[in-house]
Amino acid sequence: MTTIGRSAAPAAWAGDSAVLGAMIVALVPMGLLHLLGSTAVDPVTAPISDYVAVAGGYALIGVSAVALAVAGLVLAAGLGAARLPGARRVGSVLVVWAAALTVVAVFPTNVPGTPVTVTAWVHRLGGAVVFGLLPVIVALVARSGARDAHWASVVPGLRRWAAVSGLLTLVFLAGQAPVGFGLGPALPGIGTVQRLMFVLTAVLLVVLARAASTVSAAHPPAPVPLRGPAGCGGAA
Questions:
Q1: What stretch of H or E contains 102?
Q2: Is the CB of residue 173 less than 8 Å from the CB of residue 182?
Q3: Burial of 155 by CB count in 10 Å (0-12 exposed, 13-18 middle, 19+ buried)?
Q4: How far, in whole angstroms, is CA 231 from its chain's centroid?
């Protein structure tokens, strides 16, 4: 075999546009739920899952959760394309995160005022994993990126995002703890906190995808030699 030339460098990862599209798909159903359930669900005190009581609520929540899951899987591929150190480990956590979102989509919570079912508990567990893992994912990307000069410029920003999302997650999980342990209702304002977390989730996925795209564009993989039959371009 003989090297007859070199291919152009592979194109930079451009999956950030797919992640952004998935975020739009995720946010539109949420907007519709808040419009349709404006008189039935209090966004300040009630969790997003309570929109299951609204006509079509289960389907809209499912569409939003699946869109987030797809974005997470696309992002996992993007981190690998951007050569993030430990991308496989972070990608595995993103796969678990996407699986938890699928659980949220498949297993609805109970309608408010009705007994809590096993399905509802599975839904709540899935939601806890989704919100709990998000700051971990951002922190892992920041920590891994700190070991690579190509990621150095985006690491400080990712650390700040990880801190903000971690704080909101702690507030949310603490506010929901009374419900989870059967000790009483959630703390006041927990609905607002969860909605802020949902918006932050969309923002963080786009931020991470944009970071991967930026690093990939600035430092694309090296060109791959093209080889042909002996005699086509030089000695074998």
A1: helix 87-106
A2: no
A3: middle
A4: 51
If phi > 0 it is left, if psi is from -120 to 50 it is alpha, else beta; for residue 136 that is alpha
Residues 6+ apart with CB under 8 A from 161: 138, 204, 207
For the chain, 236 residues long, give each residue's pLDDT as a single digit of tens: 444 444 445 567 889 999 999 999 999 999 999 999 988 899 998 889 999 999 999 999 999 999 999 999 999 999 999 999 999 999 999 999 999 999 999 999 888 888 889 999 999 899 989 989 999 999 999 999 999 998 998 999 999 999 999 999 888 888 877 666 566 667 778 889 999 999 999 999 999 999 999 998 877 655 545 555 544 544 44
Entry field: residues in the chain: 236
CA distances from 86 to 77, 93, 114, 236 (A): 12, 11, 45, 38
